[in-house]
Amino acid sequence: MPVDDIETMGSADAPDAIYDARTLGTPKMVLFGLQHLFAMFGATVLVPALTGLSVQATLLFAGLGTLLFHFLAKGKVPAFLGSSFAFIAGYAAIAPNGEPELLPYACLGVACAGLLYLVLAALFKAFGTERVMEYFPPVVTGPIVICIGLILSSSAINNCSADWRVAIVAIVTIILCNIFGKGMVKVVPILLGVVTSFICAAIFGDVDFAAIAAAPWVGLPVVWDNTALSLFTGGMDTGLAITAIVTIMPIAFATMIEHIGDISAISSTCNRNYIKEPGLHRTLLGDGLATILASLFGAPANTTYGENTGVLALTKVFDPRVIRIAAVFAIVLSFCPKFAAIIGAMPSSVIGGVSLVLYGMISAVGIRNLIENHVDFTVTRNILIAALILVLSIGIANSAAGAIAFTVGSVTISLSGLAIGSIVGIVLNALLPKAE
After folding, report:
1. Which residues pair with 328 in a beta bridge?
2. Which of the residue ranges 53-67, 72-86, 230-244 has the most confident prediction, judged by mean pLDDT?
3. Is there a cis peptide before residue 100, judged by omega within 30 degrees of 0?
4. Mean predicted confidence (pLDDT) in 169-195
5. Is 237 helix (H, G, I), strand (E, B) or coil?
6. CA 169 to CA 267: how far, in whole Å?
7. Nearest to 225 by CA among 52, 71, 322, 103
8. Distance (Å, whole) CA 327 – CA 52
């Protein structure tokens, strides 16, 4: 949604919600908080299942990140911060099979990507929204988002191949819930897809329940050796660290635009101008710091969740305190290793079926971004920018090496296709003359 359109919405002094704490009461607020927990649940825990990161740490820092975001946004924006799917390509580039010794380097790269949020927040504060956004137009961010989904598509197919019966159950369940579901069924199709296909996999004998039975009910969610901070105490491969940072940081250009879109969507849903008050500089700061904190402790990057915006639209309950209740529930659940073991026992066919839909939706969002913003592909400038982003990102990712490597002194740095495509797109947008 354009910034100008947001300006016409409700004033910053409008009521927090159609229903607030005075009309809801504590029991209903808790119930609505649980509903928000379930809405974000399926997608949030799927990211560690796909990447190899800790489920417990993911839930802990989703909750803590949400509370930090609310603190920095003056407690006004009813947004939940869950795991970002956009960075999955970055994790896959550094730790393609979820190798425990490589994941901390990927997390370091994501933490550095979070620093870009802070830079953009400062720019918004100093120069205003419209002037900064000139460097990240849809003709750049749209193709980048498209490439994120397409680059990941082969891994989804490989996982589905483990048992296409189970994968198809997941796909069909998600489609049916999205198209024909009512109420909460329509809000949590990913979670229902995971549960249904997991049950089918168990019936087919594809689930190992031994690890689930052996896992304790209570345990700490963070293991030091799995954190990015451990790299600074246990010896760091400088070349790999630089490669991770340079490879993953450009993904933030797409996720920051996604953040702006999500805040616009929440503003529209709640009929309040959150872009003006508390301001994008505050929401970006909250999202960026939450991502940095989560990544340093071995959890996925955070992002504002569209699933929870859907719940806002469904319930008309806009009180941010309901979201904070959901965050507390996520923190409590993070201290249950048995739940993490259930996620760890999820067969690859379940992951493949769900991720096939999700990765396709990521690319579809990029296409929608281009259409909604009326990007004109009769203009040669736009064609060149989009073409180079697409070909470089996907072509390099599918090449034998999977990246372009070069040596600086004694350090070898590898740039992923997505990193190169993003950089080239941003530079071309800045240098090529715009059509009159």
Report:
1. none
2. 53-67
3. no
4. 85
5. coil
6. 36
7. 103
8. 23
